[in-house]
């Protein structure tokens, strides 16, 4: 495996592997959250929203992205954002092709993200993921990689039927 800086030739393979990686996550997420929340975030389906969000990241932040290659083909990627006001790096996107999950690709990409943050003088690295059943493997991975959970509660209220 080799980790290289992102280039435009990686764009389509990274989008495709990301959707494959998240395919099993979204049905479990959908069943774990209120319908109005899921439909608000994904009115045209999760694939549409994920595709447009990832396209924006790949197009707008190419210098923040590292790509894992196996036999010269993309196997995963990480986008690292820096938040100097908090002395913090952020693993903003991490995705590994399902055929390469569990082989060390994710760990290598997280390590690259940590190295990026450390090189810029950051004191910590943060990652966010869902607390639903679909994101359970991600939580296990991050906790197994030494990340400590920060207690956060996020609440939603459906106001579409309320009058003022």
UniProtKB/TrEMBL annotation:
The keyword Oxidoreductase does not apply. Transmembrane segments: none annotated. The keyword Acyltransferase applies. It comes from the Bacteria. Residues 1-164 form the N-acetyltransferase domain. Pfam families: Acetyltransf_1. This is GNAT family N-acetyltransferase. It comes from Arthrobacter caoxuetaonis.
């Amino acid at each position: 495996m080799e980790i290289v800086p992102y280039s435009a030739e990686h764009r389509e393979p990274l989008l495709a592997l990301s959707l494959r990686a998240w395919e099993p996550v979204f049905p479990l997420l959908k069943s774990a959250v209120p319908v109005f929340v899921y439909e608000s975030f994904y009115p045209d389906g999760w694939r549409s929203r994920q595709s447009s969000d990832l396209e924006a990241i790949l197009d707008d932040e190419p210098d923040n992205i590292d790509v894992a290659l196996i036999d010269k083909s993309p196997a995963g990627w990480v986008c690292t954002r820096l938040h100097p006001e908090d002395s913090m790096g952020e693993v903003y996107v991490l995705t590994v092709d399902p055929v390469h999950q569990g082989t060390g690709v994710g760990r290598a990409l997280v390590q690259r993200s940590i190295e990026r943050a450390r090189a810029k003088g950051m004191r910590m690295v943060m990652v966010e993921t869902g607390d639903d059943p679909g994101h359970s493997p991600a939580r296990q991975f991050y906790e197994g990689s030494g990340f400590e959970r920060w207690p956060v509660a996020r609440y939603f209220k459906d106001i579409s039927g309320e009058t003022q």
